[in-house]
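Dissemination and training. As part of the outreach component of the grant, students in the summer workshop were shown how a complex can be specified as a set of sequence lines and then modelled as a single object. The example used during the hands-on session is reproduced here so that future cohorts can follow it. Participants entered these lines:
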Amino acid sequence: MTEPRIPRISSILQTAPVHTDSGSPAVEMDPVEYTLRKRLPRKLPKRRNDVYVNMKTDFRAQLARCQKLLEGGGHREICVHGLGLAINRAINIALQLQASSQGALQLAANTSTVELVDDLEPEDPEEAGEPMTRTRN
Amino acid sequence: MSAAKSKMREKKMRNQPISVQYPASQDVESNTQNGQNTSVTAGAFARARAAEVSTMLKAVTKTTGSCHVFGALPKHMRRRAMSHNTKRLPRRLRDVANRMREKSLQTGSKKKKEQAKSKSRRARRRHGNLLLEFNRRQRKNVWLETHIWHAKRFHMVKKWGYCLGDRPTYKCYRPCYRAMSTHCLLQDLSYYCCIELHGEEDKLLVSLSQLTNKETGPTFAAAVCISGRRQGSVVVYRAGKYPSQPVGPVTFLWRPRMQGSTQRQLWIWAHPTIKQDLLTELQIVCQCEAVVAPVVPVVIPAEVPPLPEPESTSAKATQIPRMKRKRNCKDARGPPAKKILGDGTRSPTTPITWKSSSTGIVINDLTMEIVRYRLIGPQSHYVLAETLEAATVCNENGNKSQPSSFWWPEHCKDESNMNLHQQQAEVFHILKEIYSAAELPSGTVLGLTVDDPRLTLPTKKVKALPCLKQAQESDEEKSRELMLRGVPEHCCQSFLWDQSVRDNVTDNKISEQALNRMRNEVLVPGSRLSPTPLQGRVPILLVHQPGKQVGHEMSSWGAGWDLLLPKGWGMAFWVPLVYRGVRIGGLNMSLKHSQNKGIPHFPHDYPDCPAGTRFQEEQETELLDKYKRRPPAKRTNYIKHGCLAPFRCPWQQLVEEWELITKEGREERKGEGQTHNKTDADTVMEEEMTSHLDIFVTEPQSCFTVLRNRKSLRLISGWCRPTTSKGQRPCRTENATPLDSIAVASFLTEHRMSLVWVRLSLLSKGKPELNSMVCAPLAEDLQLLGKKSDSHSPQEPPHRNHFKSRVKQRKKGSEKAATSSVSSDRIEVRGSDLPSTSEPDLTTSAKDPKSSCQSSTDVILGLWPDPLPSITAHCSRVTLGWVTQGDFSLSAGCGEALGFVSVAGLLNTLLNQPREHRGLLLLRNPNSLHYRFAKINIEV
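and obtained this result:
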């Protein structure tokens, strides 16, 4: 193993849901009148060496998957992605991988923004006008 | 003994002497009577033996049983081939055998001659004759346009007046699930009925508002829906009867507004089982608006006649008679059969249009006029994008002056139409850039005109896959806009709404044969037909179907698109779609689809609707028949399992019992309150209770309802969550009212006799089944929860079968009386035979033996007879409700069940549970004694 493999960790950051409505500041937001419905984040085309980390799957399983990709899969680098609550976990996985590789791995962290869409559905559709959608970053 | 066996025996014994007893003379009898058998009269004895011997000889000489000749041969010399090759028989038997064979051949030929009267297969399969035959066969149950395709591949069932594919004949349960969650699953939903309302917007809204209630969510008047940009869905109730008498769920679609016209068009899509109810309701509400409010419904049919000729001033009215006339002349033509398109089995005199003179609303029954396909799955829009191609504009300058008989060239002449078409095509093009069908706003509508998809049919079946190319900046901007806002309003317009265009397209469809001939004439084989034939433009509507919207897990699973087509074009679109590698699902899959989405499926999960009740009855008889087909020793003994109703859910009884229980509980509490110092809260509660009691006394026993009020549902779903468990973040919408007795009491006064739709996910192993019981755990059960081992799950002690002893007695009695054979699984039980038991219902039924004597009900072994005892208290754990859909959920990875529980029972249970275990219930299958822990979820 002459060349160190470099897992690039691009953790995609998303601020925790804060109640600031960026879309339409004119309308007062009342949680009782609207139903918030979150849409899933947009899925992007995925390569073999992309690992999307979530909070549902067991941590060890995700770690094992990454290790398998690095060792058996023949990939020189892998990208570990995390969003929101899973950012911590993505970082954790990357550090664990690095620790277990005895210095053969390098980390590169990237952060970026993902646009998310929420639907606000008015409770009383006849009185309130349009249901709004807002984007959060 | 089975019928066949007894018949054989009878045949065998036919020639046998029944009694070989010689009629004994008097003196012999007297001798035996005296008990002195010492002396035997020689003459009489000899005569008696002689008679016996003669009958024996007679019996031996007569052939019995089968009269085949080789019956005379010993067994080891018989061969099967002897029956048709007599030379295999020994010579001494050949003559007889030959004679027998000729005889049998003669009878056989007679039968054959009778059959041969029908035409040869070749004649029967000739196209015209075949169509005639097909038209005859679908007189009772209508066929969809894809029927023949389905009939070759699916198990067909006759349901709701249609022939529908239930499930494929090949094994594809998991592939279909995979298709739904990763690629695309196609279903033919053309059996859904479309009802068109035509009238002024405000009048329509006023009349329709009687059918719905705002509390259950958006109604017909929801702002996004009314613009025509989104499809909406509501649960329709009988006029002004909310919340008691629901009709069923419908989806609706408004036609976008047109310039300079106040007339609006509305399509209501309903399941065929509720179509009639819905139609009558619509007729009532549309009429009631102007006339005096309580109109006697009998009068209405007289006032709203099926549109006759005099009213043919409106465009709609002229269309309808024309259709009818065509159908009539089609019938008159007779032999040159034409394939029935749409609902041709309906008699031409059946009214399909109603008009009200006061409101000007026209109701139009468009059943089978529009084909509806459903594509489920995140990649369904790729399939659509690959199959469909926006219609090519035809600009033949020379022909501009001549009016064409086809609709598209006419439309091409109009500049505004072309603009619209281009915009729609652009939106459709952007659709390809979107990764998943779930990314669009739910219910988006897109109108489009497309080319005949048969022209671009691939030569081989290929799976439609997303093309991963980087979109340009401008496109990205546009697709973002599409994701946020949905399709702009004017793009939702489609010519599918126009009856004239629909008819034109249907009539001028190129036949498969003509198309193949044109393909044949193309110079390079396999290349596209270059000038697209003029007829090949079809207006369509694409309607987005939202995925899973409730709950937090797997959100927007199973989103997809609905494709609406004019009738007659079903197969032309079906085959190209299939060639894009989609899976096809039947009724079975749509059930699984809604189960994974966690929404009630119609009509299975609407026990309060008439259609749902009917369905449950059918299901019960079906399951009962299946159960009775097994011998009693080989089937589940539901009495021993403590399962009162394994094949149905007596909701009414459950709700009434819980009503009683809560009443008693309150009275107890009231007593406590009187002994202690009364707090304000107590008095308030008491007042409420007394008022509630008054209501209870005065009101007659009402029917149960299903809770659909959104606010109440949200409240109750908040109560169901464990409040202090780890990993659960406190939700933003955590309700203000905590769960306590006062809140519960006030909630219960509102929803006294209600059921609530719940989702239960099992914590350990186990697969819930249909009609599993949902029970409340005891306090000691919850202590078992920490232990992982499966043996620690609570168990129901086996029940005693009190009916068995009764049955035994009955059997003995029947043997004594030596009556005719009693069929072993159905035994008459009389109340008088009852042994005295501790069971309350037995004693009650024993009290009035008369009635049970008269009815003499048939008892099915292993099932409780009809007057059920108390359902809630029958088992060691209190029953709260039942499961209507249960299976191992492939999306959740554990057993999941959907069903209803009684609101009163659920709240009582939740109140008594400790906070950290709140929302834990027990689930028990009807054929098992194990209780499994399950977590309850009420999703709004």
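The CA atoms of residues 807 and 827 of chain B lie 7 Å apart. Students were then asked to discuss how this feature might be tested experimentally.
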